[in-house]
Amino acid sequence: MIKLFNHELSGNSYKVRLMLSLLGLEYEVVDIDLKAGEAKSPWLLKMNPLGQIPILMDGDLVISDSHAILVYLARRYGNEDWLPVEAVSMSKVIEWLSISANEIQNGPCTARLYFVFNAKIDLDLAQQRAHEVLKVIDKYLQQQDWLVLNRPTIADIACYPYIGLAPEGGISLEAYPNVVAWINRIKGLTGYIGMPGL
């Protein structure tokens, strides 16, 4: 049985829940109380020394980091539609995982942390970065429906949550109609599940 160590309001945990649902996989959720510091508890640090969630257990296998988990689930339980093995196609998907971990993380994700988790961050800088990456993605999506390969891949699943949750960081999506249309396409996928804010 697959087990997911999770926090309901974590966009990174949600990426994994969404992927599990899109793949039609059964799993058990173990909610972690981040405010109480449970992520830093000794038993969880044994699974991820960084004290971060999500963490996925599949039998004896333990994987942390949302993008690593998406890669694992796509290759183990999905098909090449979600993560192709051909070199160029795979590299295009991985480019977007990097954008998710950098530009999206440092923009809309960080801005949301200020409002949802009372994080002490530079809100103006995070919002500025959010608009910079949203402008790029909106222009990119003028030419295509999905981020890469003309179909949904783990690139879309990795980037979606914190873009969709951008309004929780004080970032309006009204100026980005192509991004909004992409969000609605993701919500239309068979097996889609939401989270608070989405």
From TrEMBL:
Annotated keywords: Transferase
Domain GST C-terminal, first and last residues per copy: 86-198
Limits of the GST N-terminal domain: 1-81
GO molecular function, one term: transferase activity
Gene3D superfamilies in alphabetical order: 1.20.1050.10, Glutaredoxin
Similarity remark: Belongs to the GST superfamily.
Name recorded for this polypeptide: Glutathione S-transferase
Organism: Chlorogloeopsis fritschii PCC 6912
